Amino acid sequence: MHKTDSVIQENTRRLAIVNAPYDPWRGTPGVVPRQPLQVFNLGECLVPSDLIRDYPHYADGVDQDQLMHFTFHRFVYDFEYFCAYCVRVQDKEGAHIVPFVLRAAQRKLIKCFEDQRRDNKPIRVILLKARQWGGSTATQIYMAWIQLFHRPNWHSVVCAHLKDAANNIKGMYATLLENFPEWIYGPIKFQPYQRTQNISYIKQTGARITVGSAEAPESVRSQNVLMAHMSEVGLYPETRKNNPSRLFRSVTSSILTKPYTMIVIESTANGTGNWFHTEWLNAERGKSNNIPLFVAWFEIEMYSMPLADTYEEFIAAMTDYEWRLWELGATLEAINWYRHKLREYHNHEEMMAEFPSTDIEAFVHSGEIIFSQEHCKLLRRTCREPDVKGEIFSHTNRNTGSQALQELDIIEQHNGCFKIWQRPDTNTPVARRYIVSVDVGGRSAKADYSVITVLDRYWMIEGGVPEVVAEWRGHIDHDLLAWKAAQIATFYNNALLVIESNTIESKDNPDAYTDDFILDQIASSYDNLYARHDPQRIREGLPPRWGFHTNRKTKQTLVDTMIAIVRSQSYIERNDLAIDEMLTYERLPNGAYAATIGHHDDILMTRMIALYVSQDIEPPAIIEHNHHYASTRRIITEATI
């Protein structure tokens, strides 16, 4: 079959799924297993199989006398039916109160909840939202369903980034109660709880609902709850006293790990490297109890547009990115909508930020981001926690001078600045194996970090790629940083030490003269310090300058080299933060490169310098006979890690 014909055939199949009728009253294949049942006044319905399993007397059909009891039981087992029958919400325009019929994206979320509930597991979900499709509404109504039909005295908390947002979520619940069928519990509504302003009480079920915000975290702390809805977590403010991690722990610490308890973390993305992004990555890797759930724009049925051209003409004009959308599962009609919507944006990055097709696109800032999100995601697969965290020191008790490079050791510390993924190999003598690169930051806690990266080139001998094996990151005086870098370089088999000299040589640096002198001191004690070849200085009979100088020309070279390396996956990364920095590194309107506002590029700079130098110098080689190597490593190999 011709490719175009197969695409059209597959598109027909996808459209049939998208446009399949959905009838929650009579039941259609939905979020739980179903089976047919004859119901009085409705005819054949598809009802949850669990209902028939637990109430087998309904298996032969439901007659008029059984109808009321059956309907109540169906509310308990059939969330989709409960929503359509019992729940009323405001429509999109806010003008009418209408039955709550789940959309396709909402059914995807509810299935995630129901899979865990039906397996008698605690419900734990982290939801990455794409635009407004009712994820918060579905979450809150599901929690209400548990409180109304499954568990009495089952208290919950709703915490949003803003007080108004939290109140809007609670308002959905209030509207549900105001329109709830009276034949079930009689008139039902929220009542004040012990004169508190932010806690409401439902008398019929004993449930308490607490509402608060990250603006006033005290309002939701220390509440004895069993369900927590943390909304728009990516927008929670981060300050010294309050941050998302601390607030999350305080809200959820009382929630037991047992069936019907719920913790839902949901948000639109707000960049990388923050708490929500970290929690998402942990969930993706199976490092947390949360199930990660992302809904792409093309899974939302409203984002579709009929084709003006024939299918053949449309397919022939599809771009590489549109083919990518097709591979992800979008219909041609959805791709057509995307093509027209894209015309409203200045660039594709802005469109991807507003209407992400993948979780990677969702977290990337708008702007001219340099590194491909897909390539970065592939690179992230090798990231992991370090084997050791701690600090390097000398048993001579010196941290400067030649003695600081002797009798080196590692002390393990939980919050240490030095991360080690792989210890130095002292058994196989290899020339030009390790490169240590340094990005000089500021001294204060608010300044840029100083970073020292260790790159291992061993596998290049066998046609492999270099890998990051260690990293130091912190705030420190420039002279102590230089000697610490020399210690780490010494520890890693007298590695080539490459220090970026911009900060040291800057005219705006009040200690420039002193800092420049420090490199001369390092060079007098450490014999493998990188020096750049300055033609003008050589013509004047002066020695080359120590360090790697980053200017507009060399920065472009570094960036171009790194783009190619990331694209070809030509090195192994270990630190997630390095990937985060890649995803927030952009080209500015003036042509310069920098991290987006509020983010760092210190780790990335050390990677770019180390990998550039790695390509620029001779490849590593095994030293067959090198007695000098063994003797110079004698003291270091006695160190224990």
Brief sketch in words of this structure:
The protein is α/β, with parallel strands linked by helices and 641 residues long. It is built from 25 helices and 25 strands.
Report what the structure shows.
- With 641 residues, the chain is α/β, with parallel strands linked by helices.
- The protein has 3 domains: 1-22 and 300-363, no CATH class; 101-295, Rossmann fold; 425-625, 2-Layer Sandwich (Nucleotidyltransferase, domain 5).
- 38% of the residues lie in helices and 18% in strands.
- The strands form 7 sheets. The protein has an 8-stranded mixed beta sheet, sandwiched between helices. The protein has a 7-stranded mixed beta sheet with strand order 14-13-15-19-18-17-20, with helices on both faces.
- Strand 8 (199-202) and strand 9 (207-213) form a beta hairpin.
- Helix 17 runs parallel beside helix 19 and helix 21 packs across helix 23 (602-616).
- The longest helix has 16 residues, at 3-18.
- The protein is elongated.
- 41% of the residues are buried.
